[in-house]
Amino acid sequence: MTSRRPFIALLCVAGLVGLGVYAWRANGTTAPAPTPVAAKGGGSASAPAAGNPSAVLVEVAAVEARTLVDDVSAVGTLVSNESVVLHPEVAGRVAAIHFRDGSVVKKGAVLLELDAAVQAAELQQARAELTLAEANARRIEDLFAQQFVSSSARDEATSKLAVARAAVALKQAHLERTRVRAPFDGIVGIRKVSVGDYVKDSDALINIEDIATLKLDFRLPEVYLGRLSPGQMLEVTSDVTPGEVFPATVDAIDPQVDAEGRAVLLRARLDNARGHLRPGVFARVRVLVDRRDGVLLVPESALMPAPGQTQYIFRVEDGLARRVEVETGVRRATEVEIVRGLKSGDRIVVAGQIKLRDGAPVSVARPVAASD
């Protein structure tokens, strides 16, 4: 046992010497790190700036001041400017139809006539009685002038003449009620009766629509009520005419807000002289609420959340990232309005800010917009 101790000690010494030689060779042959080369042109850089290896590689953009149109979208339904379903005023048999389905008609045009033989005969009788009453009145007037009749006889003749005239007007009205006329210029629909049909005064005959101008009914949340007014401009689009935008104006605002949906009903008016749109069509509405100049817009990717309701952005100043708390406004696609915290021309970090802290050095990798 005693003779083996020198051998074990020798092995330990040899192992320590070997480890020392290996460590010396490993440290002595390590090559120095190459010095980063700056990108040409100062545009894109694939490494931190020379002389500051701790700089964080980021992308920046410039804050822009632009004109912003505030709008709100809604959906609605197109309605005829004037629309009515015509009914006969009296019962009778259809004698004549003076229109074609879907044709344009003028106000006052006779569209349909009922059999009016009885009414015409009554009118003829009333006119004959009127002629007799007029002759009697003239004769009594002459006799009264010669003092052959009393004033009471003259008054009676005058009264009978007035009654005869009223009877003619009454019979004329009865005859007129057998004719259905267009109440306004428009387009008639598809008729529901034919010649020979017996109709009652409650039966629907034809609808007529004025579509040269269309109304558009739609609703908006009550929060926009203070920013709406008659005459306000809006844009209307429909799947019926893809790609075409129809200008319109707000015609009226309902004074009562819907208590259940908390929405206000609006009615707009748009020109449809070409007849491309029709009542009942579904439409999309873009209401131009406001137009503002000098609005600061930044990419949405620049915003960083903070505890609570605050948000912040890193602004680049002299190669350093400065954390700036901002107040935002409306959002448009991939951009956000900055209400407070920045000014036009500021350079802000839009990518790579996750690794940043306030005051950290940065290296611009790829400017998105010119800063000067």
- The rounded Rg comes to 46 Å
- SS-based structural class? alpha+beta
Write down the CATH class of the largest domain. Answer: Mainly Beta
Q: Kindly report how far apart the N and C termini lie.
A: 86 Å
The low-pLDDT segments are 28-51
Description:
There is one protein chain. This protein is α+β, with helices and mostly antiparallel strands. It has four domains: 56-63 and 303-364, conserved putative lor/sdh protein from methanococcus maripaludis s2 fold (Beta Barrel), CATH 2.40.420.20; 72-80 and 211-289, Elongation Factor Tu (Ef-tu), domain 3; 88-112 and 183-204, no CATH class; 116-177, Orthogonal Bundle (Helix Hairpins). The chain has three helices and 19 strands. The strands form three sheets. The chain has a six-stranded antiparallel beta barrel with strand order 2-9-12-11-10-13. Strand 16 and strand 17 form a beta hairpin. Helix 2 (117-145) packs antiparallel against helix 3. It is rod-shaped, with a radius of gyration of 46 Å. The relative contact order is 0.19.
Sum this structure up briefly.
The protein has four domains: 56-63 and 303-364, conserved putative lor/sdh protein from methanococcus maripaludis s2 fold (Beta Barrel); 72-80 and 211-289, Efflux pump adaptor protein, beta barrel domain (Elongation Factor Tu (Ef-tu), domain 3, Beta Barrel), CATH 2.40.30; 88-112 and 183-204, no CATH class; 116-177, Helix hairpin bin (Helix Hairpins).
